[in-house]
Fold these 2 entries.
Entry 1:
Amino acid sequence: MFAAAPLAAQQEPQRVVRGLFFEGNHAIDDYTLSTAIVTTNSSAFATRWYLRWIGFLGEKRYFNEFEFRRDVVRLVLLYRQSGYMNAVIDTLVRREGRYVYIKFRIYEGDPVRLAALEVLGLDSILDVRRLKRDLPLQVGDPFNRALFQASADTIVSRLTNVGYPYADMLRSYDVDVAALRAVATLEGLPGPRMRVGQVLITGADQVDTGTVRRMLSVKPGDWFRQDQLYVTQRDLYGLGMFRSVNVVLADTTPPPADSMVRVLVRVVEAPRHRIRLGAGFASLDCFRTQAGWTAYDFLGGARSLDITGQLSKIGVGFPTDANLKQNVCRFLRNDATSDTANYAATVTLRQPAFLSPRHTASFAVFAERRSEFRTYTRQAVGANLAVTLNARRDVPVTVGYSYSVGRTTADPVVLCQRYLLCNESDQAFLVNRRPFGAITISGVRARVNSVLDPSAGSVVQVTLVHASRYVLSDTLYEFNRGEVEVAKYYPLSRRSAFAWRIRGGTILPQPPSLSGHSVKFVPPDQRFYAGGPNSVRGYARNELGPRVYVSDSIEVTGIDTVYKNIRASPTGGNTVFTANVELRVPAPIFPDRVRLGLFVDVGQVWERGDTGTTVTGLRVTPGLGLRFVTPLGPVRLDAAYNGYPQEAGTLYFLNKADNSIKATGRTERPGLPSGFWRRVVVQFAVGQAF
């Protein structure tokens, strides 16, 4: 029958696979089954009725009768390897003209389960009882031979990390299909325990081998550990000086009568100098560009010198204003902080292997102008010094000191409301150029399966900032700032995940005296803000929390005073809390490339200690989003429903004649927008929200 199949297939017209389905499978998902067979479904443009009219798009995959019959055998073997020895595969093929629809009907039956698993020969080396709890295959599970092999590999990995470079495992098992019972044995052959002897380095022509040796986590005399070979390989590649790095055993078999093992480090050098150029567009930056030049192994010692420059607000800010606020960059139309182009120029010297292969140090000088949407503008020149301590490898802690001289400006109404400085001379005093010094301590524990699109693991980040006269900061800039962020990811299936994040922070300022007022001043660029595509998505960027309102036009009719041209300015706060939960699932169309996100965001920003604040309670904004998978990470489009009116705030009047600001004695209380769609906030961003 199989021999005649090719001839019969030649007589059959070529048919496009328009549908491929699996029915009855529970132990193995559709994706795994589809990867185990040759027959594949055509792309969505060739299978969906509402897309098929675009005939030139999409890949048409044709039905092969001979391979289809082999696919039945492939699925049976896959199920038997997974422990389902009695699985039966039936097929249903429906031919309609040039198209074919295929369904695999699967009767899995009961699996053969692992009744006992013995681990022999390792009692004097490892804690066997604890080891068995960590194996991929557990007693009572279906006897999956792939997991049985993975269990053996897990034990070998443990042995190679405690000094046994040539460890191996013998595997044996007995399966009773009638009783649906399996017994398996893993016998260890650890071989001799060995220390690292000679470390050989090849391929280093221009780079000093002494520099390479300083980066090694593998030292002569240490017990051999395979994980340290991987760490060394990662550290050397991370220097940017090498195209490839490979750290392996120099001998494939144990050296006779020797307790030392040789390690071979093979490197291929990369160009010593690199140039980077980039340009792009962002809704809050308009057009932007950046350039950089890096010299690797600068003056030897594996250090690098990096020079970077960035320019943004191109097309809306002086001197590059092309009046794009009225069309392309209309998001910035009412943003006073975008009246001038932002820039940043930085020269950074990095020293890896600072005191230890695990620690790094960096020194940078910079000049910048940066603005935050509708909140503040910062212009400064300064320097940063930082040391990253990575003793545990998975929890790097960075201790840094920054010193800059500059000025931070904000909306005059914000300065009037927050610091009681309402005349022009007092505000000019507040925003004068001043020195700002701060010590920052930050730690990150990141254990995720993907940096761009995590679906499993967790991230914990803690940041502490101290600024005071004792670290050369101006007496006006004295405060302590702390922030904690925790995120957790749970995989639900190959393409689905559930994630949550909590962020909290607080600022404890010192109370200096300004113009006779005792105020707690914190620079606007150090205050907390919330709202935006990576925060509470029911609010525009920085729009959550306290705000003030200002009018520059007034109309008096009789005894009534009407204020016009009212605009809002966020003031930020000294306390913030946000929480996000999100379910990420594949979309019904193009599930490999498009995903859906169902989310609920909660948060608020407060000014602790301000008895006049009108901000109360948390804000909850649910929403739905699309994620388009790209090599740079998911491109995200979110729509969140905001069922709250804008926060109430004090109304001020700005006299354009003398730039004076006066409180009107009124509180502006905007109403809830009418209609459902006016309450929906759309956010666009690249990368997951968290």
Entry 2:
Amino acid sequence: MLKQRIVGAPALRKEGQAKVRGTARYIDDISFPDMIFGATVRSRIPRGHILKIEFGDGIPWNEFVVVSARDIPGDNVIALINKDWPCLVDEQVNHPEEPILLLAHPDRHLLPKAVAAVQIEYEALPSIHSIEESERGDVIVWGEDNVFKKFLIEKGDVDTAWDQADFIVEGEYATGAQEHLYIENNGVIAAYTPGDGLTLWGSMQCPFYVHKSLVGLTGLPEDKVRIIQVETGGAFGGKEDYPSMIGAHAALLAMKSGHPVKIMYDRLEDMVATTKRHPSRTRIRTAVTKEGKLLAADINFALDGGAYSTLSSTVLSRGTIHACGPYYWPNIRVRSKAFATNCPPHGAFRGFGAPQSLFAIERHMDCVAHAIGLAPEELRRRNFLRPGLTTATGQEIREAIDLEHLLSRALTLSDYHAKRERFDRENAYTKKKKGIGIAAFFHGSGFTGSGERNLSSVAAMDATADGRLRVLVSSTEFGQGTNTILCQIAAEALGIDYEAVEIAQPDTSVVPNTGPTVASRTTMIVGKLVHSAALGLKQTLQASGSLHESWTTEEFCAAAKMHVGRYGKLYSSSRYEPPPNVYWDDATYRGEAYPAFAWAVYVAEVTVDMITYGVTVDDFVAVQEVGHVLNPVLATGQIEGGVAQGIGYALYENVQWERGRMTNGQMTNYIIPTSQDIPPIRVFFEEIPFAYGAYGAKGIGELPMDGPAPAIVNAVSHATGEDFKAIPLLPEAICSRLGLRHSVPAEAIAI
């Protein structure tokens, strides 16, 4: 057997060569005989009744396939959590860009003209476009009160804590929407025959989510609906929910036309029609002693969910639990609501609610420190969660986490104290003011609460007739390293070369339901299942006498081939079982919210140009504890990518809305950071192996999205002396706050 470890080594990406050589086939590289192309006719108003639809002149409509809500054979709904999201509008529009009709034609270039020729007459209804409008309830657009979901967390006695406080600090914080902007737009191909049923190929994260939706929509038996994930060019959560919608549209067109149908969004349609990160508003009131001990917090956390509930309840859930930050609160109350508006539905995005609430609490901690005259890092140090203490949900910290050590290491690596002192001294004499800020945070690995128990995920391994070993999971690769990590885990467990293990293409007719590729769960949860399945495979070979006490890779593969030839198959599966002492009460919203947390302290150094009011991030230190690091190159890449995305969230990415419609749906005016805007990102890991994760791993993918925004805005506030509480923090906001909206400095004129 191998003596070196595969886990912990920088194994090459399984799909890397195909991507580098250009042989990887994405959805728009795939074609089928007699394939036609689909397009969507969308609403142009935020809310109203459809009165009349007319098909304009100049289009050969007899050549088109047209699908409306009346053509749906099953339920007109995209099945996620609640069944309120229609596949196609029947009578009432509830947001701009809502799908109304589907068109298909052999000439994809004729489709835009046909879409433009469809004229729809509406009776407009009142609409709402913000949390505040929805909260007031003057117009009800969903249910009885515009509230999709609400949660309450209570610990201790918040109401009596105020009298004990030396200081009471209040603040309101806001975050905007964020576009996923994955490299590859949404796209699918659907094919249908009465005998074979429906097959859908697509760029997606969660094949079994799409399968569930299409079974209900088409009315077909489960075994007549097959979903296949093809090479996927980025997702960030944006391909968790929306592939069910575009997949449903292609399926309906394929079933009606009898042809394979491809739908491929262009960038504009993808940006204006699909889900975004939820905008948020957080109000925090805290009681604190003059020594800096946190006594109590009363937190109100609100999300704009858009027109339909989609995944808002689960995003709200994670945001609610993370709203308290990595601190010990003897008394805390968190009330949260997800509100309906007439914007396109907001959905999953890397971090899943935690970036919104953690931005608020980490900005607020700096405000509290300033109010009581304590250094920001010292306030945090005095209130960190430690082993034996409990979170807001009553979860005892059992990991040997040392947040004080993480903080000290981050401060040392960034030269925080010396720089802060120097910046304070020099900023009075320069038009380019420098600041340095910190953020401490955590992120729960896996589904919240009872989610993993309910999923009951299964992973498997098998051997082919020629002795190749395969990992069988529905977990998908979209650039983050799923294929590589899971093959590393399998190879390590089997004691064979990494190159001898392959992973099956996610195909619902071939692989078991391993759950969605979300929630920082793939390595920790699915990886552990793969490890168990691999051990089962090895034990089967040993029990049959095909494998001896030690073996080479060649001997193992030969034993697998012999076993398949003799018995017909070699297969092993493993079903999820929760770690011991992990209990969650959905009714009281208390207990162990996550099997484990990842922890981090980030430090951002910035320059604020007092002439242009632009912010440059000059240096970034990211220190995190994520369990055992299974592939250091992939892990570092996850942190670097998350920090870069967090910089965009903090400073650049501003979704502009007009009556519920995104008006800057192009990459020319939706600004993301370029390589020139990204500083050196210095990544450091602490490793405390988690006993119930694969080889000690915990989640990593979402963690780096949580910390950059508050660290950066804390640094900007340090540089300017102004207390900024909303992102994205654009130059216009800095200029306005500094009272210089209408003036131009003399230096600028001279330049």
